[in-house]
Design goal:
D-Amino Acid Oxidase, Chain A, domain 2; alpha+beta; FAD/NAD(P)-binding domain; four-stranded mixed beta sheet; seven-stranded mixed beta sheet; 35% helix; binds flavin-adenine dinucleotide
Length: 416
């Protein structure tokens, strides 16, 4: 966001409490996230870093053949064409972004944002910062942006509306890194060594496999909290056992169960803050909503919202919506509509993975490729998205209850 603001000649200050490089989860990019890095002129830097090149996502269910969603962009004729995106080690990538923001004009304040500075009418004009070297500093702003991620600072500081739990809240992700894995080495796009692999067992119980370099792969298990607690295992033992048991294909690909770093955990990461803008402030990214990590939307959504918010701020500084009760209401609405599509995509996958695979692979592959890439910011509802809505209207589904449903509703038979 800082880079977008600098591009438009808007002075910006980043207040950051951590020192970079620091560990972070969120390593796989969607196609549009790669496109956004290119649009910021960062492609050469990404290539110099030798970040793994991702051609798509391969999804393995408990039985049957895997299905693949390739990374593709829309060209000027609005046709789909192959493109690649990246997997990144976030400690390295976040430092790259931070250094680049500084090089392009950002001012850095090293410290922790504590409370917003408010006028009598409730509008925000800055933030109090507990400085890293001790002391307190009041930073004044025309617009204060909360980009604090899962810390959801704006909510804790009493600026936003309530933080309600999301649909995928009662889950835990446990993750680490491994090596000596079995990767694909074919010529087709779905056989590229650096693709993301997803393995699912049952509702909200799944695993990721995301290459971080030629040797190291990020692996994570996501399960209901209850399941993790019932196992009464340490994070490490849980992760190691699940890597061996969750899906036979995952076990085959990770034969060497030695973790290269500690097993980390993030529980209850799914939430929604509906009012995340106001007079003199707004939120981007995880600071207001996080749905579920299954299809790697986080970095894309945050970065895109950074771009959208920068445009809204430019308009505001030029006089647009200056006296409105909420000058950033349009931005908020636009973000929410995009995120609702992500929610529909993920809900449909969990409601009925088999029907989802059928739509993704056979009926409307182009529409699902668009959604997976992150092309969610348009009012158009594609035929594929419409069918995902249909799945969600029906809710969680067991094919044994109504074997004819797919034929009737989706208008075609599922070939086994
Ligand atoms: C298990 C899991 C797996 C994921 N996998 C993926 C994936 O494969 N791909 C993907 O794209 N996304 C993934 N995500 C999501 C991704 O991690 C986030 O969506 C993304 O990092 C959000 O970026 P952000 O800028 O909003 O927040 P963050 O990246 O968390 O940045 C917030 C920053 O704010 C700073 N901060 C916080 N509070 C303060 C304060 N008070 N004062 C000053 N600084 C502060 C923090 O130090 C931090 O640097 C995953 C998430 C989870 C939970």
């Amino acid at each position: 966001m800082s880079m977008f603001l600098s591009q438009m000649g808007i002075a910006n200050t980043i207040i950051e409490k951590e020192s970079f490089p620091r560990y972070h989860i969120g390593e796989s990019f969607t196609g549009e996230a790669g496109g956004l890095m290119r649009s910021l002129g960062l492609e050469q830097k990404m290539l110099q870093k030798h970040y793994p090149v991702k051609h798509g996502v391969r999804v393995y269910g408990p039985t049957g053949n895997p299905w693949f969603v390739p990374v593709m962009r829309r060209n000027e004729q609005n046709e789909l064409e192959p493109v690649t995106t990246w997997q990144v080690r976030r400690s390295d990538f976040d430092k790259l972004m931070y250094d680049e923001a500084v090089a392009r004009g950002a001012t850095i304040v090293k410290g922790e944002a504590t409370v917003p500075l408010k006028r009598e009418d409730g509008s925000v004009y800055g933030v109090r910062v507990k400085m890293a070297d001790g002391g307190v500093n009041d930073v004044h702003s025309e617009v204060l942006v909360d980009a604090t991620g899962q810390h959801t600072w704006g909510f804790h500081a009493g600026m936003t509306s309530q933080k309600v739990i999301g649909k995928y809240d009662r889950q835990v992700a446990i993750f680490s890194q491994v090596k000596n894995t079995l990767r694909d080495h074919g010529t087709a796009r779905d056989e590229q060594p650096d693709n993301t692999l997803i393995f699912y067992k049952e509702l909200v119980h799944w695993a990721w496999f995301i290459p971080l370099d030629d040797e190291v792969v990020s692996v994570g298990i996501v399960s209901p909290n209850k399941y993790f607690q019932a196992k009464k295992e340490s994070r490490r033992n849980f992760l190691l056992r699940e890597l061996g048991e969750l899906n036979p294909e995952l076990a085959r690909r990770v034969p060497d169960l030695e973790l290269l770093e500690e097993a980390r955990a993030i529980p209850n990461y799914s939430y929604h803050v509906r009012t995340f803008t106001g007079k003199g402030w707004l939120c981007i990214g995880d600071a207001h909503r996080f749905i579920d990590p299954v299809f790697s939307f986080g970095v894309w959504i945050t970065a895109k919202e950074g771009q959208l918010a920068a445009q809204a701020i430019k308009g505001y500084l030029d006089g647009a919506h200056r006296d409105d009760p909420n000058p950033f209401a349009d931005y908020q609405d636009y973000c929410e509509r995009g995120l609702d599509k992500v929610q529909a995509l993920i809900d449909a996958f969990w409601n009925d993975p088999i029907a989802f695979a059928f739509i993704a692979h056979r009926r409307h592959p182009a529409d699902i490729i668009d959604l997976f890439a992150g092309r969610i910011y348009s009012d158009k509802v594609s035929a594929g998205l419409n069918q995902l809505y249909k799945i969600n209207e029906r809710g969680a589904f067991n094919p044994a209850d109504d074997p004819e449903w797919m034929k009737r509703e989706l208008g075609d038979a599922l070939t086994p």
